[in-house]
Write a structure and sequence with these properties.
Blueprint: E1 2-5, E2 14-16, E3 19-20, E4 26-28, E5 34-36, E6 39-40, E7 43-44, E8 66-73, E9 76-91, E10 94-102, E11 107-108, E12 121-126, E13 129-134, E14 137-141, E15 145-149, E16 152-158, E17 166-179, E18 190-209, E19 212-227, E20 234-243, E21 247-257, E22 262-274
């Protein structure tokens, strides 16, 4: 199984043979956990009720905002990773921000490069909850198959929680694949269960990145488990550092591909930011 390392997305794309697993639609309940099934017009319902009162702006969202990161995989420098907001628009009926670039680097855990994967990525803030969302996506693989990934989303940060407090998003990933060439075998639909658990590790801390000190900073640990019937569990563990009035200044983590018994490590450090 080949895992694609997209910073911040952890395992947004999971390739099984030639299949891409999409995240199935889900609702957010009043506890902030996600449950499978809910949708509006075929799209996932992902925003839910507002979180607690925000303690500040730890992910500034405005058209033209751009964050550029020094990026490396397993200690080897890659091209800069860029996160840039193009404009504001309603996504599933909620004011959201569309990204023209959201960490375009895509490297698999076996070391190969897959090229850019075009996604409609959104962020939004509801109370003190910061959501990340991806709209439904279609991918054509060499003219042989068409893979459809439905919309998904999760809460990346709850800025009002105290150190040690946590939240969990759970959802099911379902992939549908259409074979475009006659005489090729059909590809069955697959389901992947995902458990995304986040915990506040630090608050009001000072973090230095590329010679610049940022404060106050909230450090979040995000641990994801991927469960596919008949295969061993894979996982990802990331640490995200959010600075007040700046946004994400650093991310570091690892992805364990149980199928290939490979662990890959990712590091991104802010080197430039433009805020409007």
């Amino acid at each position: 199984m080949k895992k694609i390392l997209l910073p911040l997305l952890s395992l947004a794309f999971v390739f099984l043979s030639c299949e891409n697993e999409p995240l199935e639609g889900f609702d957010l309940d009043e506890t902030g956990n996600t449950t499978g099934g809910g949708s509006v017009g075929g799209e996932a319902v992902i925003i839910g009720e507002p979180g607690g009162a925000s303690t500040g702006d730890y992910w500034p969202m405005a058209a033209g905002n751009k964050w550029t990161y020094d990026y490396s995989v397993d200690g080897v420098a890659d091209e800069d990773a860029i996160m840039e907001i193009s404009n504001q628009e309603d996504y599933l009926g909620f004011p959201s921000y569309l990204y023209s670039s959201f960490f375009q680097n895509s490297t698999s855990t076996d070391g190969s490069t897959t090229g850019d994967v075009e996604l409609n990525s959104y962020s939004s803030k509801n109370g003190g909850d910061y959501h990340f969302s991806v709209a439904s996506t279609n991918i054509n693989v060499g003219g042989f198959i068409e893979i459809t990934q439905s919309a998904y989303g999760f809460i990346m940060l709850k800025d009002y929680l105290n150190v040690g407090e946590s939240w969990t998003n759970t959802y099911t990933i379902t992939t549908t694949t259409e074979v475009l060439i006659e005489d090729l075998p059909e590809v069955p639909t697959t389901n992947l269960n995902v458990i995304y658990h986040s915990e506040i590790m630090e608050k009001d801390s000072t973090v230095e990145v590329n010679g610049t000190s940022y404060s106050p900073v909230i450090k979040v640990k995000a641990t994801t488990t991927y469960q596919l019937a008949g295969t061993p569990d894979s996982s990802a563990e990331y640490f995200y550092y959010f600075a007040k009035d700046v946004g994400l200044i650093k991310y570091e983590g690892s992805v364990f591909d149980a199928d290939d018994n490979i662990t890959s490590n990712v590091l991104g450090e802010l080197n430039d930011v433009i805020l409007n």
